[in-house]
Amino acid sequence: MRVIHRAAATAVVAALALVLIACDPPPQPPQARDRGAAWLVDQFGSDDLIAASFDPTQRDLGGTAYAASNLMALGSGRGQARAAVRALAGHIDEYAVDANGDDLPGSLARLIIAVESVGGNPRAFGGEDLVARLQATMRTTGADAGLFGKQDPTFDGDFRQGLSLAALSLVRPVPAALQGDRPAVRWLRRQQCDDGSFMSYRAHLDQPCAFDPATFAGVDTNSTALAVLGLQAVHAPERGDVAAWFDAVRGSDGGWSYSGGTDSGSDPASTGLVLAARESLGTAIDQRGFDRLVSFQFGPSTSADRRGSFWYPPFDNSPRQPNLLATDDALGALQIGVWPASVRRCVSSC
Q1: pLDDT tens digits for range 212-265
Q2: Alpha helices (H) along 89-151
Q3: d(CA 9, CA 113)
Q4: Sequence-separated (6 or more) residues with CB below 8 Å from residue 297
Q5: Exposed (0-12), middle (13-18) or buried (19+): which is 63, by Cβ within 10 Å?
Q6: Tens digits of per-residue pLDDT, 287-318?
Q7: 217 - beta bridge partners?
Q8: Are 256 and 271 in contact (CB under 8 A)?
Q9: Neighbours of 186 (CB within 10 A)
Q10: What is the phi-psi region of residue 216: left when phi exceeds 0, alpha when psi lies from -120 to 50, beta otherwise?
Q11: Contacts (Cβ under 8 Å, ≥6 apart) of 50
């Protein structure tokens, strides 16, 4: 936990910064889109990769792939996006293989989406067939037959499954996993709760969805949003009224938090993911949600290194800071079209 009490000078600077942020009028989605894209472009280094926030000497390969596909969807910084994808070709195993030597389905999915966004071939990228590698991670036996990845799904099962389905939906010809009886789709649909929501993972499908005190996991907006986006992308509508569930767990401020609830403060990552999922369901444009989303964006009166990025609510009274993942998640809701199809918008038309 950071120390809350700070020197007077630091407090004054932080207070002034907050005043300046508050004075910026809420931008409209096109402005927020352009500012966000400009900030993303500025995050790339001379090697066309993005540095890790925790250690500038390391590279955030996942953030690079996510930002590249977002830039293509936003129709801005396309040259940088293409350069970033080329650079990622030399880091596939570094990014997509875990410490046990097993492929990570979520990482492979992010790479597939990035490659597809620039009009590349994920079946022949950096000397690898990313599509075959992702499909090869799918379990074929046991209670979790159809789940992508050997890794423990407790905290990300539904999220990575939705992301993997979204990635495969972009590939042509249609991958084998999306043909026939589609066990990967069936696995995710069985995970859905009666009210339409999703948990990070349901180990016991015969029991109602409930908060697990052992794992601190329950239903959440992020897993639900990615599951919905993945199922919609492969034309496999989810069960239950998930749109009504999203409405029921909207915060009083107009946005969404990770766990949901009217009294919980929203965040830009969850709000962006939910808005994107609602768009995939055909829900009418939600101006209140968009207004709350862009309220997390640093405006034009802030310093150039922050302008256009989104900040994630700090856990204490520390100053707000640009957050790459929050920015990427937020921009997913500001794209033209429905994600993930939106990432291929500029392949031939821009």
Answers
A1: 777 778 899 999 999 999 999 999 976 779 999 999 999 999 999 999 987 778
A2: 92-96, 105-117, 130-136
A3: 46
A4: 27, 32, 35, 36, 268, 308, 309, 310, 311, 330
A5: buried
A6: 999 999 999 999 999 999 999 999 999 888 88
A7: 212
A8: yes
A9: 13
A10: left
A11: 43, 44, 59, 60, 63, 64, 67, 84, 324
CB 292 within 8 A of CB 334: no
**In the chain, beta strands by DSSP E:** 51-52, 55-59
Instruction: For residue 105, give every residue at least 6 positions away whose Cβ sits within 8 Å of its Cβ, in sequence order, or none.
Output: 134, 137, 148, 149, 160, 161, 163, 164
- Which amino acid, 172? R
Helices 29-42, 324-331: axis angle to 10 degrees equals 140
State the SS3 of 32-54.
HHHHHHHHHHHCECCCCCEEECC
pLDDT score recorded for residue 349 = 67
Q: Please report the pLDDT score of residue 4 as a whole number.
A: 36
The rounded distance, in Å, linking the Cα atoms of 2 and 18 is 19
- Give the max Cα distance, the chain: 66
User: Of all helices (H) and strands (E), which one includes residue 325?
Assistant: helix 324-331
Which residues in the chain land under pLDDT 50?
Answer: 1-23
Non-local CB neighbours of 197 within 8 Å, separated by 6+ positions: 209, 219, 220, 224, 240, 242, 245, 249
Q: Phi and psi for 228 in degrees, rounded to 5?
A: -65, -45
Prior bond of 340 cis (ω within 30°) = yes
Per-residue pLDDT, 14: 37
Nearest to 146 by CA among 273, 240, 231: 231
What values do phi and psi take at 186, rounded to 5? -60, -40
Q: What is the pLDDT of residue 212?
A: 79
